[in-house]
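Entry type: protein chain
Record version: 2
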Amino acid sequence: MDILVRPDPVSFFSHIVVTLLFAGLFAFQYRESRHVYFQYWTMAWLLLCASLLLRLGWMTTGRTLFLVSSGLLQLAFAASLLFAGAAVAGRGEIQVTSLALLIPACGAAVYAVGILTGLPGSHTLRGLLLLGLFTWNFVVSRRLWKSGAGSGRKIYSVSLLWGAALAFHDVIVYAAAELPPLTPVSSHIRYRDTYYAVLETFLAFSAMMMWMEAQNDQLRRANEELDQSRRQLASAAQTDPLTGLLNRTALHETCEADSPVSGVVAVLDLDNFKDINDALGHLVGDEVLASVGNLIRASIRKTDRAWRWGGDEFVILFHDQNQAAATDRLEALEQHLQRFRIRGRGVLPVGISWGTAEVAPGSLRQAIEEADHGMYLKKKEKISPSKFFSG
């Protein structure tokens, strides 16, 4: 047996120790997390460890069957990297693709060539298959992770390319040993276990980094969803469900806030709304309020704000507007309400009374009280609102 085919004992046993450590580490992680990602990695390290033990059997007995079987398990290790990568990318279904058929096919080919052509041919074909698997892992991993760019993924991708380079080197070395003129296998092949142990160390640490990055991404998405839910809840807590306007609580918070407010505030109240409820029912009354809320929202700018103060009373803040502009917009709103229609009942003119007041910085509450007083004065000027439905 060519001594250059046999590994250096120190390099070989160091490789076994490294593999056992990684198998134990990922087995512990799987036991704690029960995540399929660590299950695949545990399986990968166990396959590699079994491959090394079979090589030890070949070193002890010299039987070719041990060496060929070791190559088969090494291929299974390389293939299992794809399963692990797919698991962390959330694509565990890749395990049921053609890869499931490729592994036994590759193994059968390695076994047959190892028996028929001897060790150099077996090593050459194994190197070609490893080259294909590492390259395939790199391409598929890049495709699965095209939306992410973590450091662990980058190191993992570089490690896969490194594995492909080592496999390609094995192909060149063992193929050259078979071609005339016969070339002795380079002596550094004895220490290939050291190269692969370093490679596997990078694979292991990048695998842990990928897991942590995936957990961080998941935590970040969960926090974003939680923040969005909190914003939605906060918005719902300050929104009147019937009209879609801000509610009384939101108005109170705005009055208590320290942020400066300027412009014109208007307080408006629907005329004869009690008669609408009494004559047509509360469902129609709710329809009127909802339509008024929609109309108010459509009539104000994005910089303006509108609240349902309570019942049929509303407050509008025309930001950075003067009294004349606010009055024009309220009159336009009243004209729209005069053409208000109820489904199945036709036109139902709805009148409104309003009062306005300019808002000085820090005096929104005082301005609302002033506008509210003006609204009630205007209501008293109107003729017999209780006779709205009379006649």
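Comment: The two ends are 119 Å apart (CA to CA).
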